[in-house]
C-alpha cells in the first residue's frame, strides 16, 4: 500500500462523520444521533478518497511512516462532511431584483408569473444569452456556494423551455462540471413552465417528441451527462397527467426522478412520485398526510426548501410531520432568481428556526440525505472510508456554529476540501 497521501487533517476537536455504518440515508432517529469523534483526524488519499477517519492517536500511530502532500492542524477546530445542496437553478440571465419589491408589496409568486414576470422573464433573457455569458455567471454562483461549504450541488436547466436553450443550459452545466472542483448532479427541467402561447398539451408533446429524444442522442453519444429529470407539477403549470408522462419518459432514459411538487396547491404530487419510484420531490409545502405516508413507504426523499417558503411567505413545509412519519428529509437552497441564496448554512438555520428541525437533523438533511436525493449517498454525504474526501474545517470548537451563526460563514469556514484538495 502506498505511503503517500494527499491530505491529513489532524487533531480536530470534533469530527462529525454524520453516519458511520454505510447508511444510504438517515430517518428521524438516526438524524438525531449523528456519529461524532471527539479529537479526531482524517486521511485522504491521492485518489481523492477517504482512507481513514478516527481518533487522533489511532491515526497518528497507523500513519506514523506516511507522508502527506498537505497537513492541516485542526486543533480547536471542527471537521464536517462537505454540504450537499439538493436543489438549485443556477444557470440564468436577467436580474429579477424588481420582483422582490413586488412581492414585498403583496404580489404572490403566481401573480408575478401571470404578469409575465417570474420564470418567463428569466426564460427570455436566458434564451438571448450566449453560452459563455451563462457559464461565467454559473461559475461565480458555484464559487459562492463552494465558499459557503457546498461541495456537491444539483443544477437544473429549465429557463429555455425549448430544445436549443435547454441543451445550451445542460452543456453549460457540463462545462462547469468538467472545469470546477465542486461536484455537480445535473437535471433536465424542460417542464419548468409552459412556454408563452402554448398549451400544456403542446408543451408536453414537445418535451416527449422533440426534447427528450435529442437528449437521448446526446447522452448515448457521450456529449452530455444528465442525472435527473424534473417537472414543475402545479396548477397552471404541468398537471398530474402531463407530469406523469414526462417523468416516466425520463425514467426510461435512465434519469432519476426528482421534481417540484405540492408547492402552492395540493396536487397529489407526493403520491405520484411514490408511485413512479421518484428518488426525491421538492417543496411539498402543501403535501397531504396521505402523500407523506406514500413518500415514507416508497423511500422518496423530501427536499425541503426553507428559502422559498420564507421569501414567498408560504406555509412552512411540515418537516416535523414528515420526520415523524419516517420520510427521508433533505434540504436545498433552491437558488434561483426568486430565492437568491447560495448558502446552505443559512438554509439549515432557516430549517431549524422556521421548520423546527434540530441542528443535527438539519446537518443530516444537508449532507447524507441530500446526497441520497441525488443518488450519490454511496460516495458522498458522510466522512466514511472510500467515500470522496469532501469536507469542511470550521474555526469554531463546536460544529453547531455552522448553523447557529446567521451569516459570517466565510470567516467561520477555514477550509473547503474537495477530493482532498483545498479549494
Ligand atoms: O423552485 N417553483 C418553481 N421553480 C422555482 C422558481 C423559479 C423561478 O421563479 O425562476 C422554485 O422556486
Ligand atoms: Fe426549484
TrEMBL record:
<keyword id="KW-0963">Cytoplasm</keyword>
<dbReference type="InterPro" id="IPR013108">
    <property type="entry name" value="Amidohydro_3"/>
</dbReference>
<dbReference type="GO" id="GO:0005737">
    <property type="term" value="C:cytoplasm"/>
</dbReference>
<keyword id="KW-0378">Hydrolase</keyword>
<dbReference type="InterPro" id="IPR005920">
    <property type="entry name" value="HutI"/>
</dbReference>
<dbReference type="GO" id="GO:0046872">
    <property type="term" value="F:metal ion binding"/>
</dbReference>
<feature type="domain" description="Amidohydrolase 3">
    <location>
        <begin position="128"/>
        <end position="423"/>
    </location>
</feature>
<dbReference type="InterPro" id="IPR032466">
    <property type="entry name" value="Metal_Hydrolase"/>
</dbReference>
<dbReference type="InterPro" id="IPR011059">
    <property type="entry name" value="Metal-dep_hydrolase_composite"/>
</dbReference>
<keyword id="KW-0862">Zinc</keyword>
<keyword id="KW-0408">Iron</keyword>
<dbReference type="GO" id="GO:0050480">
    <property type="term" value="F:imidazolonepropionase activity"/>
</dbReference>
<keyword id="KW-0479">Metal-binding</keyword>
<dbReference type="Pfam" id="PF07969">
    <property type="entry name" value="Amidohydro_3"/>
</dbReference>
<comment type="pathway">
    <text>Amino-acid degradation; L-histidine degradation into L-glutamate; N-formimidoyl-L-glutamate from L-histidine: step 3/3.</text>
</comment>
<keyword id="KW-0369">Histidine metabolism</keyword>
<protein>
    <recommendedName>
        <fullName>Probable imidazolonepropionase</fullName>
        <ecNumber>3.5.2.7</ecNumber>
    </recommendedName>
</protein>
<comment type="similarity">
    <text>Belongs to the metallo-dependent hydrolases superfamily. HutI family.</text>
</comment>
<dbReference type="GO" id="GO:0019556">
    <property type="term" value="P:L-histidine catabolic process to glutamate and formamide"/>
</dbReference>
Amino acid at each position: 500500500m502506498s505511503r503517500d497521501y494527499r491530505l491529513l487533517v489532524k487533531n480536530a476537536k470534533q469530527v462529525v462523520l454524520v453516519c458511520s455504518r454505510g447508511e444510504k440515508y438517515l430517518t428521524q432517529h438516526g438524524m438525531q444521533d449523528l456519529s461524532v469523534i471527539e479529537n479526531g483526524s482524517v486521511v485522504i488519499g491521492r485518489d481523492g478518497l477517504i482512507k481513514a477517519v478516527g481518533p487522533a492517536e489511532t491515526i497518528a500511530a497507523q500513519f506514523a511512516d506516511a507522508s502527506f502532500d498537505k497537513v492541516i492542524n485542526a486543533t480547536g477546530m471542527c471537521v464536517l462532511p462537505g454540504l450537499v445542496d439538493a436543489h438549485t437553478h443556477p444557470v440564468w440571465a436577467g436580474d429579477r431584483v424588481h420582483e422582490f419589491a413586488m412581492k414585498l408589496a403583496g404580489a404572490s409568486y403566481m401573480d408575478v408569473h401571470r404578469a409575465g414576470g417570474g420564470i418567463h422573464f428569466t426564460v427570455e433573457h436566458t434564451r438571448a444569452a450566449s453560452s459563455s455569458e451563462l457559464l461565467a455567471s454559473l461559475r461565480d454562483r458555484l464559487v459562492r456556494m463552494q465558499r459557503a461549504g457546498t461541495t456537491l450541488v444539483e443544477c437544473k436547466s429549465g429557463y429555455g423551455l425549448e430544445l436549443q436553450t435547454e441543451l445550451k443550459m445542460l452543456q453549460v452545466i457540463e462545462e462547469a462540471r468538467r472545469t470546477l472542483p465542486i461536484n455537480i448532479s445535473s437535471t433536465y427541467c424542460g417542464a419548468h413552465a409552459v412556454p408563452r402561447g402554448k398549451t400544456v398539451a403542446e408543451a408536453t408533446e414537445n418535451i416527449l417528441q422533440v426534447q427528450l429524444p435529442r437528449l437521448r442522442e446526446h447522452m448515448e453519444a457521450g456529449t452530455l451527462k444528465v442525472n435527473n429529470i424534473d417537472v414543475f407539477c402545479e396548477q397552471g403549470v404541468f398537471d398530474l397527467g402531463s407530469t406523469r408522462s414526462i417523468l416516466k419518459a425520463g425514467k426510461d432514459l435512465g434519469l432519476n426522478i426528482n421534481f417540484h411538487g405540492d408547492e402552492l396547491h395540493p396536487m397529489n404530487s407526493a403520491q405520484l412520485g411514490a408511485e413512479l419510484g421518484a428518488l426525491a420531490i421538492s417543496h411539498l409545502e402543501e403535501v397531504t398526510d396521505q402523500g407523506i405516508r406514500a413518500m415514507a413507504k416508497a423511500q422518496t426523499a423530501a427536499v425541503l426548501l426553507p428559502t422559498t417558503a420564507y421569501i414567498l411567505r408560504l406555509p412552512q413545509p411540515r418537516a416535523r410531520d414528515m420526520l415523524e412519519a419516517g420520510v427521508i428529509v433533505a434540504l436545498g437552497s433552491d437558488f434561483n432568481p426568486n430565492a437568491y441564496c447560495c448558502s446552505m448554512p443559512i438554509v439549515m438555520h432557516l430549517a431549524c428556526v422556521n421548520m423546527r428541525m434540530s441542528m443535527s437533523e438539519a446537518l443530516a438533511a444537508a449532507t447524507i440525505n441530500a446526497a441520497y436525493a441525488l443518488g450519490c449517498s454511496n460516495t458522498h454525504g458522510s466522512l466514511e472510508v472510500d467515500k470522496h474526501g469532501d469536507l469542511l474545517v470550521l474555526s469554531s470548537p463546536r460544529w453547531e456554529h455552522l448553523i447557529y451563526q446567521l451569516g459570517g460563514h466565510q470567516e467561520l469556514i477555514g477550509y473547503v476540501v474537495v477530493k482532498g484538495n483545498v479549494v
